[in-house]
Amino acid sequence: MATEEMEQLVRREYKEGFVTDIESDTLPPGLDENTIAFISQKKGEPEWMLEWRLDAYRQWLKMKEPSWAHLNYPPIDYQSISYFSAPKRPEDRPQSLDEVDPKLLETYEKLGIPLHERAALAGVAVDAVFDSVSVATTFKETLSEAGVIFCSISEAVRDYPELIKEYLGTVVPKNDNYFAALNSAVFTDGSFVFVPKGVKCPMELSTYFRINAANTGQFERTLIVCESGAEVSYLEGCTAPMRDENQLHAAVVEIVALDDAYIKYSTVQNWYPGDEDGKGGIYNFVTKRGDCRGDRSRISWTQVETGSAITWKYPSCMLRGKDSIGEFYSVAVTNGRQQADTGTKMIHIGEGTRSYIVAKGISAGKSDQSYRGLVKIGPRAKGARNFTQCDSLLIGDTCGAHTFPYQEINNSTATVEHEATTSKIGEDQLFYCQSRGITEEDAVSMIVNGFCKDVFQELPMEFAVEAEALLNVTLEGAVG
Amino acid sequence: MSEVLTFLETLKARSQQRAEEPTWIAARRQAGAARFEAMGFPTRRDEEWKYTDVRAISQTHFALTENAEFSQAGAAALTLPIDAYRLTFVDGVFSAALSDLDGLPQGLQILPLSQALTENHEAVGGPLGRLTGVEFSPFAALNTAFMEEGAVVRLAPGTVVEKPIVLQFLSRANAEPVMCHPRVLVEAAGRSEATLIEHYTGEADAQNFTNVVGEYMLDRGAIFNHYKLQEAPLGDYHVASMHVEQNRDSRYRSYNLNLGGALVRNDLISDLNGKGAEANFLGLFFGQGRQHVDNHTKVNHNAPLTFSNENYKGILGDRAHGVFNGKVFVKRDSQKIEGFQSNQNLLLSDRARIDAKPELEIYADDVKCSHGTTTGQLDEEAVYAMRTRGIDKATARALLTLAFAGEVLEEVTLDAISERVELAVAGKLPERFNLTGLVETASALNE
């Protein structure tokens, strides 16, 4: 491929880069027990929640930041981060889209995802998180008719304390890892979804997260629970404006599926990756875990990761229930100086559990990308089955692509397969397309999209279109 | 920490007995001891030792031995029936009586390390420890601190050695467990060609610890076939660090066949430093009882146009625990390389266990790399198909197990070795039966 075009591609600017100027009610940088008390009070939380947070904080203090990932970044000063930022006048929070600050709507316009249009067209309820407080929630009524609870986690703590007490921290314990502990102490927002027994959620649920106000880390906490036979598809998509300071993002997502429940969790992540020299960009340390607690339950993770300077993310499934199924479909694209260490963990505990992993990595520019996965078959997981396919595509000779799959197999009736390949776009493939009158850029785009097809087809329709566009934008200049 | 001190005390006692040494050896020894003291024994918190617990080694007191007594008949029963040049070590001590270096061709030098040091220690000082330094692992450091004996093999440019070279390491059933830290040093000059067999075996009741470091330097166009047949007694502990350096157009083939040992750890590394260099890693590990077999391999593609291919097969029965960690590393700008890796494991019993980690670390784009790993059990449909044809279940299972190993074994060009492995694998299968006749018939047909 022509080197110039490659370089052009690599030198693309961040299209979603803009800062919306809304005054924030922001806490000064620093973290101690007072910060946590402030957050808890601001959220109007009950006493037990504060205790829970403080316990997490005290455990966090004793923990060490993990260093095993194939990532390289300067040490994070946790005292230089502001842990709370909310749009002004929380008491005047808009009740519908019309009341939403026009600047916010403008922001969404720039992203090409006008909320109302999207919501109306796709019949999607949107719980938009602007910085740390939910500012608009739609379609709540349709959902409540079906008995589905879809609200911000803060509301849930106030309105459904029993459910929160029952499920929060049961999939990702407070002290699970360094970043999960930090999140447990300071989480400010996120979503709560509860689908009762036998209910199929009437629409796809969607949250757009945006990180705004400079210097505020975003610590969402998402909890999704599907009771027996319930089903839900949850969409999470993110973009962030351009800025200089590195921003820390440490989210926790917990999913619980009881007997015969099916939860599909899709993510498109397009946070600011930093400039050409790797300056700025989001640090994304996420703990996502699904618990297939019930028999025949199924959890499916689909992710398209194109943003962030640092990605540390391993959506996992604990397959406890008999014949439960875990799935992981991932496309990760890194360019510039982005670094991503991502993958999944499939822990087979119950009999007849199955997991399926498809991970596609595309590295360009000076980026570095690793797939890190664990497939563990416990001694009681009779007849467990795993298949893993993990392919890397390298664009340019200054990037890196790595694979670190772990397999721990304790049961002879299990069948575990792993396949991985690493290659570049074939000259012959390009030549073939070009000989048929397709431009080089289009050909590269076609080949890359074909490479990711297995994952894109798992995405909900409208997300798939967006993901494809995003992929092209991300690799613009570098690929067509 | 007290475990480390026990080893250091043994070392101290030993050095007081030892005659004066050239200063460079004393310095290396000291560096090894210091490094070992600083690192201590690896624990499962070390990524490289995540699945292997070495406490069985660190918590045992191993003595050192100075004699190489071994009955001729006993040795003959263990020796591979191959016409070869042979060096024999008994618990790490060189045995001239059990060695045979008659008629060494011109251009080939095979000598025990002690002799090489006495004759011209400067010539050994340079290469020894160049590939496997004390930094590599606590065991390499420990070996460096204790090293006394081993084998030095030198091939002059263009020397083609027809007969294989056998390094035989015998482990005795001693009253108290002993340890040895042999070194193997091979310098193959340009366009030379040889086959080396490292054979670890011994008396059935032995419980010793062998901690070997091997360094193999292949200059331009050298061709080197490296067999490791590890049939150590089932009570033995075996740790091996093998490091290969490959210059331009050199070809290296490793046959890493592991059948014995209570706790086995192999590190096999090849540095492909010159264009056209090619490495082939073939491996088979067979575990039964409570055996623990850990294979770590790494291919470093440090130069463009290099090629590597790896195929490791594991068969684990009873409560055996296997570990496979294979890594393909491609350095920045090592373009047009090909690196393939395959690991397949067969679990024969419910309590057998395997931990596999095939890794790729790639910093160049014009590469073809792939790895695959599978773990499963015998195909019950294939067993059924054989049973419908009158073959009993045990035989069917054994045949399928052998067939599984076959892909690696058929690459073994020395029949004495492949037959030995076949018989070992077939004879040790959980449902015991006699496959000897079958294997013999098959090999007779092949001839």
TrEMBL record, chain A:
Q: Which GO terms describe its biological process?
A: iron-sulfur cluster assembly
Q: Which InterPro entries match?
A: Fe-S_cluster_assembly_SufBD, SUF_FeS_clus_asmbl_SufB, SUF_FeS_clus_asmbl_SufBD_core, SUF_FeS_clus_asmbl_SufBD_sf, SufBD_N
Cite the SUF system FeS cluster assembly SufBD N-terminal domain residue spans from the record: 141-201
Domain SUF system FeS cluster assembly SufBD core stretches: 209-451
PANTHER family registered for this protein in UniProt: FES CLUSTER ASSEMBLY PROTEIN SUF (PTHR30508), UPF0051 PROTEIN ABCI8, CHLOROPLASTIC-RELATED (PTHR30508:SF1)
User: Which NCBIfam families does the entry mention?
Assistant: PRK11814.1, sufB
**Protein family membership:** Belongs to the iron-sulfur cluster assembly SufBD family.
Q: What is this protein called?
A: Fe-S cluster assembly protein SufB
What does the organism's lineage look like at the top?
Answer: Bacteria, Pseudomonadati, Pseudomonadota, Gammaproteobacteria, Oceanospirillales
Protein's gene: sufB
From TrEMBL, chain B:
The record's listing under InterPro entries reads: Fe-S_cluster_assembly_SufBD (IPR055346), SUF_FeS_clus_asmbl_SufBD_core (IPR000825), SUF_FeS_clus_asmbl_SufBD_sf (IPR037284), SUF_FeS_clus_asmbl_SufD (IPR011542), SufBD_N (IPR045595)
Give every SUF system FeS cluster assembly SufBD core domain span: 173-404
Instruction: Mention one GO biological process in which this protein takes part, according to its record.
Output: iron-sulfur cluster assembly
Query: Which positions fall inside the SUF system FeS cluster assembly SufBD N-terminal domain?
Result: 19-165
The name this protein goes by in its record: Fe-S cluster assembly protein SufD
- Which family does the similarity line name? Belongs to the iron-sulfur cluster assembly SufBD family.
